[in-house]
Amino acid sequence: MELADILTEGSVLVCAGVRNKTELLNQIATRAAEITGQDRGEIESALLGREALGSTGLGNGIAVPHGKIAGLQKVAAIFARCIEPVDFDAVDDQPVDLAIALLAPMGSGADHLKALARVARLLRTEWIVERLRATDNPGELYSLLTGGAKNHAAA
Predict the structure, then answer these.
(1) Cβ pair 45, 28 in contact under 8 A
(2) Is 66 a catalytic residue?
(3) How much is the pLDDT for 111?
(4) Do the beta carbons of residue 132 and residue 81 sit within 8 Å?
(5) In a domain, 68, yes or no
(6) Catalytic, out of 18, 28, 33, 66
(7) Calpha distance 153→58 (Å, rounded)
(8) Which of 8, 47, 70, 94 has the greatest count of CB atoms below 10 A from its CB?
(9) CA distance 85 to 82
(10) CATH number for the domain including 127?
(11) Domains held by the chain: number
(12) Which domain holds residue 96?
């Protein structure tokens, strides 16, 4: 599974003025509702419910909030780059400035896990993370996320 299969350019957010995890998840849920046609409150509830089990802040300023949504047809991703990092209760206690939310249909175990693995691999790539932090242009962010590894290999 490639990130371009689940992420559209319209699902890339640059968030300014976000003060905390709840506000960030609210903005992600709002964009996810626009992209998927699902209920914003249901999406936000799923993301907050997952966070209640334990933070999805992985460390190094990166979070991968995720949840399962009834009625969703396929896995969808929303990427958010925060201009000002926010407290996310991450495992390393560092604030988060890069978040990629994954939403999956109920019962989509394999696809959801493939998407999580793909995102984890990408965000372990130091040069991509550095470039994501260096721009606030949604088009550039989308390009880095969906073609960065290929573009880097060709360079």
Answers:
(1) no
(2) yes
(3) 74
(4) yes
(5) yes
(6) 66
(7) 26
(8) 47
(9) 6
(10) 3.40.930.10
(11) 1
(12) 3-149
Tokens of 35: 């992209």
Q: How far apart are CA 48 and CA 20, in angstroms?
A: 13
Instruction: Specify if 145 maps to a domain.
Output: yes
Q: How far apart are CA 24 and CA 30, in angstroms?
A: 10
Q: Give how far the C-alpha of residue 80 lies from the chain's centroid of Cα atoms, to the nearest Å.
A: 6
At 107, list the tokens: 């019962």
Amino acid identity, position 82: C
List beta partners, residue 103: 67, 76
Q: Is 87 helix (H, G, I), strand (E, B) or coil?
A: coil
Q: Give pLDDT tens digits for 123-136.
A: 989 999 999 999 99
**Do 75 and 104 meet the contact criterion of CB atoms below 8 Å apart?**
yes
Write out the two tokens for 147: 């073609």
- 122's tokens: 């990408």
Three-state SS for 155? coil
Mean pLDDT in the chain?
Answer: 90
Classify residue 93 by burial, with Cβ atoms within 10 Å: 0-12, 13-18, 19+.
exposed
Residue-level length of the chain: 155
Q: Residue 154: what pLDDT?
A: 38
- Residue 66 is classified by DSSP as E
**Residues near 148 by beta carbon (within 8 Å), at least 6 away in sequence:** 122, 125, 128, 131
For the residues 75-97, what does the mean pLDDT come to? 96
* 154 part of a folded domain: no
